[in-house]
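Entry type: protein chain
Record version: 2
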Amino acid sequence: MHAWVVVYRNASQLATGLAVLFMALGVTSLYGASFVSSDLHGFTPWRVPLLGGIRLLGPTLFDHDPLVYLSYAAVPATWFCSFRSRWGLLIRTAV
């Protein structure tokens, strides 16, 4: 449901939000039941060739799955977008 429908129809935002919440809970329960108690297999860890052999720092920083390495790049990118772009300024003023 779009926000303009709620505003245009003068509907209660609280009631609309609760209806959407309960509908989402029902849909996720219906379609997510097959995933309950199923085995999940994670990514295999990647070891960075030269940096993974450093004592103490190697296993701590350079022996993880690909999502960790992606997060190493995502943190500075998120900071840059949040504090150095117009989009980030608009998001920060809305919050």
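Comment: Helices lie at 3-8, 13-32, 57-61, 66-83, 86-94.
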